[in-house]
Records
---
Amino acid sequence: MQLILDKQGTLYEQIARSLKLNILGGRLVAGSRLPSTRTLAIALGVSRKSVIEAYELLSAEQLVSARGGSCTRVADIGGAAAVSKRSRVLSVSRYATRLRKLPPLQLAIARLDTRPKYNLQYGEPLLNRALLNSWRRKLAAAALRAASTYPDAAGFVPLRRAIADYLSRRRGVICHASDILIVGGTQQALTLVARVLLNEQEHVVVEDPHYQLAMHSLLTHGARITSVRTDSEGIVVAEMPSRATRLAYVTPSHQFPSGVIMTLERRIELLKWAARADSWIFEDDYDSEFHSGDRPVASLRSLDLSERVIYVGSLSKTLFPSLRLGYIVCPKGLRDDLFKAKQLDDLGSPAIEQAALATFMQSRQFDNHLRISLKEILIRRRTVVESLERLEPHIEIGPHQGGMHLVIWFRQLRFSQLDRFLKHARSVGLGLDPIHPYYRVKPSRPGLIIGYAGVSNAQLKTAMDLLARCVEAI
Ligand SMILES: Cc1ncc(COP(=O)(O)O)c(C=O)c1O
C-alpha cells in the first residue's frame, strides 16, 4: 500500500483521503487490517493523534471498522473497489460539450481577483454611497414585510407595476404589469429566451462586434450564429441573411461595445427584416439611461407593431450588477412559455430584493438616483473625451453619446505591439482591455474599450494622464 499525502487540508484529512483512495481503488481489500496507529504514525513521520483522527473519520464514513481499539479493518463495502479512476463517468450533455469549447471571456467579470489601481476595464459599476445606504434601509424594511413562502415566479406584482410605469415614462414601451417577467438579469433572460425559442442548429443573428456573454449563452444552447457587421448607424440590415432566422440579438440603444446608437431608419429596416425572416428580436437595452441630451432614444420595442421584439432591461447599470435583477417585456406569443420556463428554472427571483426595489422605484428616489448618476457619468465622460482629444494624432475616438464606456482606435500601433503596450499600462496601474476579442472578424487595427464608471472623476484625470504617457511612449 502506498500512502501519498496531497498537502490539501489538515494532516488527518490527508491521511484519511489517502487511505480512502486505497480502499476504493481495491488496493486495501475488505477485512484487511490497517497498520496500528503507532506504526503508521512512525512510518509517515506524523503525530499518532493525526492517525487516530484519520481512522475515526474513515470509521464515521463506514469505510473501516474498529474493534477493541487496536485493530482497525477495512469494511466490506460490496464491490465499491470497482470505483476506480478508469470507470469514472466521462460523458456529459451536448450543452456541456459546447460549454467546454467556449473561448475565454474577455470581460472584467471573469477576472475579479486582479483589480488594477485605475480600472478602466468595462463592467465596473458607478459606486454611490448614498444609494447603498438607502438600499440597505429598503432591504431591512422589505425583509420584515416580504413573505417567506415561495415568491410569485413571474415576479413581485408591485415591482412589475413600477417597471411598467417606468418603461412607459422613459422608454416609450407601453405594456401591462402582467407582460413583465422579473429575471436574474439579462443573462437569465438570454437563457430563458434560448430555451423557449431555440432548437440546436437554428440560425441566430448577432451583431459584430458583440457582447460575449450573449454570444456564449447562445452558442451553448446550440445556435448557429451569423455575425453581421455594424457601421455608424447600427447593424447593417442589408447584410442580414434572407433565410428563416429564429432570433436576432441586438443592442440598438447603445451598440455593445462600439457605442453606436442605431438610427431610426435602421430600426425600421430591422423590424421589416424580422417580418421577412420570421425572426424574433432580442432587444438588450442595458444602459440607455446614460445618453447625452434630454431623453434616451426610443426603444425598438416602442416601434414594433407585430410583437416580435423581446425587450430586456437590467438593473445592473442603473443600480448595481450584484443585485442580479432584470426584466423581460414578454411579447404575447411567448408570455406563457417564458413564465413557465422561469418557474422551472428557479421558482422566482429573491422576494426581499424585489420588494425593496419596488419601494425604491415607486418613490421618487429611483428617478432622483438616475438624475444624479447621469450627471456624474456626463462629468466623467467629458473628462475622458477631453483627455483623449489631446491624443488624436495617435488615436481615433469612437462614438460617445451614451453609456459608461467608449472605444478608441490606434492610428499607428500594430497588433504585434499591443501586448507590450497593455503590459506597460498595467505596470503603471492602468487596467485596460483590447477591443478586438469582441469581434468575430478581426478589425484592421487595434483598439481599446475604456470603461469610466468605476473610477472617480479625480482618479480618472490621473488615469487619463497615465494613458496619455503610455500612448505617447509608443
Ligand atoms: C451588452 C450588455 N448587456 C447586458 C448587460 C447586463 O447584464 P446583466 O443584467 O446580466 O448584469 C451588460 C452588462 O455589462 C452588457 O454589457
Note: The mean pLDDT is 93.
---
Amino acid sequence: MSEVVPVALGERSYDIHVGVDLIERGGALIKPFARGAVPVVTDQTVAKLHLDRLLNSLRGTGIDARPVIIAPGEGSKTFATLESLLRTFLGMNVDRNGLIVAFGGGVVGDLAGFAAGVLKRGVGYAQIPTTLLAQVDSSVGGKTAVDMPEGKNLVGVFHQPKIVLADTALLRTLPRRDLLAGYAEVVKYGALGDAEFFAWLEKNAAQALSTNQESLAYLVGHSCRMKAAIVAADERESGQRALLNLGHTFGHAIEAACGYSDRLLHGEAVAIGTVLAFRLSQRLGHCAPSDTDRLVAHLKAVGLPVRIADVPGDAIAVGDILAHMKQDKKARDGKLTFVLVRQIGEAFLSSDVPADAVEAVLAE
Ligand SMILES: NC(=O)c1ccc[n+]([C@@H]2O[C@H](COP(=O)([O-])OP(=O)(O)OC[C@H]3O[C@@H](n4cnc5c(N)ncnc54)[C@H](O)[C@@H]3O)[C@@H](O)[C@H]2O)c1
Ligand SMILES: [Zn+2]
C-alpha cells in the first residue's frame, strides 16, 4: 500500500513515495539512481532501530550501501560534521553521478543533503525520513543547511533529492514528544491552506497519533501534496513558499529565547507560534476569534503547547522574544513581515505589521 506524490520541478522533478513498510522496497526504488559506493547517512538511534532492514533491502538489489553513522541531535548539524562527512564520501570515492542516502530525521536530511549538494559540485541524494517532521516537511523541497554559532540554518544550499521514501511504519518507534512536534507542522498545513484537511485532522488526529498506519499514511501523503504544490510554484521562496513559515516568526524567536534547548522542540515552538499568528491576525482585524479558539482547542486536545507560559522552566521574557524577532526580521520603520490568516485554511503574507501589535499579542 503506497502512494506517489510527484514534485513538479522540471528537470529537478522527483517522486515522494508514502506508505507502510516502504523501506523493504527501498532497494528496488533507489536502484535506478545508485552507482558505485552509496553512503547511507543515519544517526545512532535510527541505526539501532532500523538500519539493518534498510541495508538488507539495498544490498539485496546489489547496491553497494555503506553506513555512515553520526551522533543524534541538532548538535550534529555543524560545519565540522559536514566536513567529516565529505571526507568520508571522498574516501569511498562516491561517484559524481552516484547517490547519497539520508536516513533519519531533519538533522540527517539537512546535513546529508547539504553534503550531497556540494560534494563534487553536486551529487544526487535520496531522502528516507524517519521522523514525522522530516516526512511532512524537511525531506521535501530541497532546503539543506547546517547551524552556525551565529544562528540556525544560516549556511546551506537548495538541492532537490532524486526521490523521497516516507515509510510511516518507521514512526512507530518515534518518541511521542517528537511525533507531536512533527504533528504541529501538519496542523500548520491545514491552518495555512486547507480548511477541509484541518477538519479531517480534528476528527482523525488521535488515531493517527496512535500510529494507526492508514490515518498516518493519509496525513503524511496529504501534507506532502500540499508542500509539493507550494514548492513547485515557488522553489526558491520568492513568494508563496513563505506561507509555510506560518507560526515560525514567533516560533523561532521563542526557540531562540529558550537557547534552542530540550526545553522546547521546534514543533512545539511552531504550535505556540501558530496560535500567536492567529491572535495577531485577530488583533489586526483579519480573523475571527472563533478560528483561534478552534486551533487552540485542537492543539490542546492532542497535547501540544499553545501559550508561551506552557513552556516548562523559568518564565520567558517578552522582551527577549521581541529582541530575537527584530534580529531575525529586518524591521522597516517599525513594521514587520508576518504570515497572517483570514481564517483557518487561508493564510497571507503581510509586510506592514506594526511592531506594537506584535508586542501586545506577546504580552497578552
Ligand atoms: N530542510 C527543511 O526544509 C527543514 C524543515 C523543517 C525542519 N528542518 C530541520 O529539521 C531538524 C529537525 O528535524 P527532526 O525533528 O526530525 O529532528 P532529528 O533529526 O534530531 O530527530 C529527532 C530525534 O528522533 C530520533 N529519531 C529519528 N527517527 C526515529 C525513529 N523512527 N524512531 C525513534 N527515534 C527516531 C533522532 O535520533 C533524534 O534524536 C532541524 O534541524 C530543522 O532545522 C529542516
Ligand atoms: Zn518548522
Note: The longest strand covers residues 335-343.
